[in-house]
Amino acid sequence: MQLKTDQWNLIGARCHEKAQFNAAIHNFRKALKIDPNRHDIRANLADNLRRIWEFDEALVELNHACIHGMFDKAQFIFGCIYLDMGLADKALNYFTRKLCVTPYARDCRGQAMLVAGRWKEGFELREARLEMTAWGTPPVPLWMGEPLNGKRVAIHHEQGYGDCIAYSRWLNQMPKGSYTLGVPSQFMELFANSFDGPVFNTSAPFPKDVDYYLPIMSLPHRLSISEMSHQEPYISPLGKFDCPVDPDTKLKVGLVWRSKSGIIDSSQPNVGIHGMQKSIQLEQLLPLGDIPGVTLYSLQTGGKEEIERLGADYLIYDLASKTMGFNDLALFMQEMDLIVSVDTGPLHLAGAMGLDCIGLLSCRGGWPFQGSGKTTAWYPTMELIWQPTPHDWKGAIDELRATIETDLAESGPTKAAAAD
């Protein structure tokens, strides 16, 4: 097709907006074949390469784009690449205060601050996300952190389930009786059992007995949190579940292999793409059940269909199909000796409950797991296993298997056996 440089660039930009990153890359390459000196198009190419985790190639293209000097767009993309690679200090070299003036750019700089452990600055900068979100018209003003003096705040869920779980740790620092908690229906029972404040369903009408509202991810900034202090388990379910256990079981391993966000939604295609990238196929994890003494349990919401498709009905106990919400899921998790999960809500839940858990993370990671370390300040009982290279889940699963075999050799009896 005979198109001009700017036409190929425009088509590439439209593909980018739809999260069709591979198609965007091909279109930008077509444009650069016609005019290889268009540094702006080469920056577009680099940005889309980093979206599919081709970081080395993205850096090569971006350095080529800057052969005659740095420019703002390239500088910002450099920051994004290093942030995605978990190299926060390098990212901050590019995410300067002078450059990051838009809400999105300030939010990116804030994420880099948090990854670098600069909590107070990071939480403050992440307030920029409020400028990018349509909150409707709450009937009360936004709480800015002023003394409440008997007034109440409606602190409500935002973004993903994992975000809500992670940031709820600071609810216990609110004055007693000072807040009402708004969460999706799946959280209501669990959060009502775990926190002092009354709970309302975010799909219901806004409560009338409050004076302010606050998205939950703004809580650490309003409370002037400046360090990530040791956090005791802060979420606990009510009830008990008797887990089925095979006679030769020594280690009960609960699995979550797919991110709920891994669904392509035309309104948020980037979210869906990343959700797919950080998910694993169940068949890649089933060989863990070959380890003598290991019994696998599915904690994956909606995982029954995949289990049946693989003929794995007798290889993994499907607990998740019995859940009616996160309280049930938490009860099932309590019965596990180890939780293994990709970066999604249940992984945060296991960490918030203080359970032994392993996070299987893509090379890009995801908040708050960006970096490369084995631990995270957010959850003391969590171990992190990263893809060694982009797209390489086999390497991560090999490391997971070795870790489980070591744990099995060092562990005592299962919880069920100990209870007997």
Please give the radius of gyration in angstroms: 23 Å
How confident is the prediction overall: mean pLDDT? Answer: 89
Helix count, DSSP H or I runs of 4 or more residues? 18
Strand-and-helix sequence, N→C? Answer: HHHHHHHHEHEHEEHEHHEHEHEHEEHH
Helix content: 40-55%
Backbone structural class: alpha/beta
Distance between the termini: 73 Å
**What general outline do the C-alpha atoms trace?**
globular
Q: What percentage of amino acids are in beta strands?
A: 5-15%
Number of strands: 10
Largest sheet: 6 strands, parallel
Low-confidence stretches: 262-269
Strand order of the largest sheet: 7-6-5-8-9-10
Report on the structure:
There is one protein chain. It contains 18 helices and ten strands. The protein has a six-stranded parallel sheet, sandwiched between helices. Strands 3-2-1-4 form a four-stranded parallel sheet, covered by helices on one side. With 420 residues, the protein is an alpha/beta fold. Helix 16 links the parallel strand 8 and strand 9 (357-361). It has helices at 5-17, 21-34, 39-51, 55-65, 72-84, 88-94, 103-115, 119-125, 161-167, 188-194, 219-222, 269-277, 282-285, 304-309, 326-334, 345-352, 393-410, 415-419; strands at 153-156, 179-183, 199-201, 212-215, 251-256, 294-298, 316-318, 338-342, 357-361, 382-386. Residues 262-269 have low confidence and may be disordered. The radius of gyration is 23 Å and the shape is globular.
